[in-house]
Protein: ABC transporter ATP-binding protein
Organism: Lysinibacillus antri
Amino acid sequence: MKVVFSYIKPYKWPALIAICLMLFELTVELTQPLIIAKIIDEGIVADDIETIWYWGLILVGLALLAFASGVVNSYFSSHAAQSFSYDLRNALFSKIQSFSMATYLRFPTSGLITRLTSDVQQVQTVFFMSLRIMLRAPLAAIGSLIMAFVVNSKMALFLMIGTPIVVLFLYVIVKKGVHLFATVQRRLDRVNRVLQENLQGIRLVKAYMRMDFEGNRFEEVAGDLKTDTMKALRVMELIMPVLLFVMNMSLLAALWFGAIDVRNGNAQVGELIAVVNYAMRMTGNFSMFAFIINAFSRAKASAERMAEVLIIEEGIEKHVTSEKVRPLTVGSIKFENVSFNYPNTDKKVLDNISFTVMEGEKLAIMGATGSGKSTLLNLLPRFYEPTSGAIYIHNQNINDMPLESLRAMVGFVPQQSMLFTGSIYENVRWGRQAAALNEVHYAASQAQIHQTIENFPNQYETRVGQKGVNLSGGQKQRLSIARALIREPQILILDDSTSALDVKTESAFWEALNDKQATMLVVTQKVRTAKGADKILLLDEGRVIAFGHHDELMNTSEQYKQIALSQGKEGEA
Ligand SMILES: Nc1ncnc2c1ncn2[C@@H]1O[C@H](COP(=O)(O)OP(=O)(O)OP(=O)(O)O)[C@@H](O)[C@H]1O
């Protein structure tokens, strides 16, 4: 909670101004019954028209001032609340950006999205409402009680009968509410997850005709959300009737004994009217409590969820600003007895891997699916750290290098091509913002996609991503490669990134990379591609079972030979 509310600090002045204005409004509201009592007792009952005018004008003047305060309060409240939520959302986003891969995997993506959207919204609403009405309701209730004491303490005493019951009751409800709303937010995470998967996999859903299945899956999670929200709201619904019952009983007692006092001449009618007026205000404000406690419990649950992310200090990477970082010298890349388990798993995905690739060499990494090829690549830019062993670049342990410099050296093309919403030009330049247009063209030419782009009606301005042109798998792959090439990387990592390219395009691509100085680590299933590499590393269940050039492995590794022969002419020729 504290972590989240520390983001209010920069807006304490607008918030304080809003609170002062709200207090002014409240004071005016609370003095109104007092003035009305004066008008009745000293004006109407005493038949004094001057007093009626005098206090009447004060009443109108104060009402106008309260109205103006309300307007200005709204301005400051929304300024403070919007700025607070803007900062909070940005802080959450930067925190998530700084997560190491291991930390990132601890949270489901949908849970992070809900935190950045719904949870921030809940807290922002409560903050805004606190400055406008939430704080005002309890203060107005207490203020009304105090004013009732000022008018007639005996009558006011009856209004206090229910106070201990109310306080205890509200305490229990808030405790229960926070717990129930935390569950509601978790349910919302699940709804978001199912929705996200469904929309991302819409083609599969259609192709497999799984609309009904998906519909049921969505109905189930949406149903759980509804059930748990209703459970929480049902508890909240108790607040109003209980509070009203207690307050009305107190009011009845005050009226009953107040009327006796008026009849006996121990109190004035105006006093009784004023106390009843204050009691009604108390009741009115108490009825706001249901809404306030509902919102507060929700916001508290949301704040706790956001704090879970904000307080993380382990598994954080320093902010990477690759544009300004000078890459280091590459030299050779050396893996020395590297083993690796994914966090919270026992399975050794990489087992005692050792090999060396010299500067400018191309290493092809082969192996059956699940043998650890992608994992090995992920260790080089330090997405994960080896469980044991070390990786060296130019004889320097990569753990001792500044992360920014290490990553500035790398051009990374993942297994699944990913493009961002925007133009083709923006997507390629995403790799290096400072790149000029001719550099974008050059990188695209090397990636064998320039001509294809030129043939699009809008060429480099063609929109891709959501609602943009849907590019083919191979075109997406080539754009991803162009995005990596534009970085002029010293280490180029291609994770099976040429799988969708036809034979001709692929060989043109490798030829275009011939004059590159980069050291390349290329995961491939194709012997044809591996043949062009300086070295081939063959993995089996996380272990190196062969390492060397194609010709060498054809003679020394039975497994490699089998793979080559299974790919027949294409592999061998
Ligand atoms: N985030 C993860 N958490 C736990 N285990 C993982 C994770 N990612 C991969 N693995 C496991 O690590 C092993 C190696 O996976 P990896 O993706 O490196 O294989 P690969 O050789 O690249 O496979 P493919 O050719 O199918 O892409 C697999 O058994 C996989 O189940």
About this structure: The domain at 2-310 is CATH 1.20.1560.10 (ABC transporter transmembrane region fold).
